[in-house]
Design a protein that fits this description.
2 domains, 14% strand, 357 residues, D-Maltodextrin-Binding Protein, domain 2, homodimer, globular
Chain lengths: 357, 357
């Protein structure tokens, strides 16, 4: 009896050991964000990702999410993920422009695709492969991390009636859009987010861009600047999940699948959160500050910005074969996808606007 | 030594027995679709869902997906899910219009929200709660199942230059849009999908609507009808996952989380698949049949259709309090969300179109 009991106990143990890795392997990861833990909806997606992963794995796979208030390295996410201090990061690809200019295409570029077109390019137009090729040199995996949709062109103290009004204008606008504006005579500056409101209020700058109503409303710009310009410079800002490749490879296959699935789910959520938040915030701004005027830059200005953008892309492409490869891919895909956008999503809203006239 | 070994073996066994339910509970589900297994991209989403669930659960939770070619009950999905023959279904909410008219709002309605706006309404505007309230009476859970975006208005043999051209026109167009067209004098018919091509080719009908380029191209309508009209009647057709409530409640929490997460992921995929597929197919159609003309109904026709739609909604609302509740919710949300769409996504494409002129 004793022998039989001992053998059967050993067998039970063996059977359970042979069960899927899922139940027995505890994995504890950390993820660093470029934003503070309270910057919604950006921080919402990674925090929700961690919650979902914990639920799906029954608590066996957990990810501790740390905001910039903790690690103090908002722009160090790529290095920290590569180095393994964090297994994951949540950031934006265009922050790595200084390391590799090609990274800008996996976030957004002036006059680029909208979110629908860019998603189609990522998943059906070769974008995911081009992104991974770019990030292979950093030993990290890169995934879409949530899109803001079209960002607003920014808050201006004075109306821009033509190209002359841009000359000498002091504006906070980072990245490629800043380079485009600089070509047109704008005095482009960078200012820490915490100082933006005061700088605009005191006239240190004449204009600035941030994101869109959902996030701008918390900064208060609508209280001090009367002109809110429509967007051209960040038509589909895609945030980014970074994963340390070795850490990913060590995960059980079940956890890899959970991670990829949860990233896709919270990425969709972020677009929805930001869209709904912007609809709410825009209604509130208009109601509380009825004098806000929404403006679109005049055609002369738009055309000059478009020409300057194209020149900028061609300059970078002449110096960098990788940049050229992705630029060519995006230009070709945009042409095809825009033809469809024009007769579907765009035409529908246009028809309704014309009826409302 | 022997005793120590025996105790430690028993302990290992106990620890493993105490591990999460995940590894030991095998769940086998079946899902019925309204479409055949080869109707991409509609069937792609549920098939991908099953694949992801199997991967995440290490094979412990599997879902066998069956197309209409197997169960022969394309429009029986709600009944079969309610009855428990299938734990899940993949269909479209407007198919249940005959059981409860309110269900149409959880798919799409003429002149309704676009996909971005509707997603925001579902998740941030009370839509999910209203949908579940509607489906509680059927003892099933309902979730978004993937959106086609704006569907095309259909293929026409003759150009529609005004309201007179609609009188007596024989057209295949189902649902509320058919009721709207009927109000304008169209002779609305329903014809099985397999007979559509021949009916249009032989003149049994003068026009028909299907989905959009990605799916229309396989039907071949572009080879026999020269006018391709832009959409108004299905601006954001959301497919639907149905789940038997008792089956869902019996699932371990881990599997519930997997299911909800995977549904959201494949729902995002379906929009991308259909968008990219339409961009590809539209390019191909235009190249192979350069005489296809894309047309938008004249303003006179659009205005009459809009008025007829609003009348139809008000008629149903007067008879049905649930219908009125959801109609009021959608009308209010559309107003708020459209104000944001207009200055962001819509304005961006408009600006670029004006530059291209």
């Amino acid at each position: 009896m004793r022998l039989v009991y001992r053998i059967s106990t050993a067998l039970v143990a063996l059977v359970l050991i042979a069960a899927p890795a899922l139940a027995v392997e505890k994995v504890r990861w950390k993820m660093a964000m470029s934003w503070s833990s309270t910057l919604t909806p950006f921080a919402t997606a990674p925090i929700e990702l961690a919650k979902i992963i914990e639920e799906m794995s029954g608590g066996d796979f957990t990810i501790r999410v740390e905001g910039a208030e903790k690690h103090k390295a908002a722009l160090g996410i790529l290095d920290m993920t590569k180095g393994g201090q964090y297994e994951m990061g949540h950031s934006a690809s265009y922050y790595w422009k200084g390391k590799d200019i090609t990274t800008v295409f996996f976030c957004t570029v002036p006059f680029g695709m909208n979110a629908d077109e860019q998603n189609a390019w990522f998943y059906k137009g070769g974008g995911m492969e081009l992104m991974q090729k770019t990030y292979d040199k950093f030993d990290v995996l890169s995934f879409p991390g949530g899109n803001t949709g079209v960002q607003m062109g920014g808050w201006f103290q004075k109306e821009i009636k033509g190209l002359d009004d841009l000359k000498g204008l002091k504006m906070r606008i980072p990245g490629l859009a800043g380079e485009v504006f600089a070509k047109l005579g704008v005095n482009v500056t960078n200012i820490a987010p915490g100082e933006l409101y005061t700088s605009l209020d005191r006239g240190t700058i004449d204009a600035l861009e941030w994101v869109g109503p959902a996030m701008d409303i918390k900064m208060g710009f609508h209280k001090i600047a009367p002109f809110y310009y429509t967007g051209w410079h960040e038509p589909a800002t895609e945030l980014q999940f970074l994963i340390n490749k070795k850490a990913y490879d060590k995960l059980p296959k079940e956890y890899q699948a959970m991670l990829v699935t949860a990233m896709k789910a919270v990425t969709a959520d972020l677009f929805i959160d930001n869209f709904a938040g912007s609809a709410d915030a825009w209604e509130q701004m208009k109601t509380e500050f009825p004098n806000i005027q929404v403006k679109t830059f005049p055609k002369e200005v738009m055309q000059a910005m478009k020409t300057a953008s194209d020149e900028l892309y061609d300059e970078y492409a002449a110096k960098d074969a990788s940049f050229k490869e992705v630029l060519d891919s995006q230009r070709a895909y945009t042409k095809k996808a825009r033809a469809w956008t024009n007769i579907s999503e765009y035409n529908y809203i246009k028809t309704l606007e014309e009826l409302a006239d």
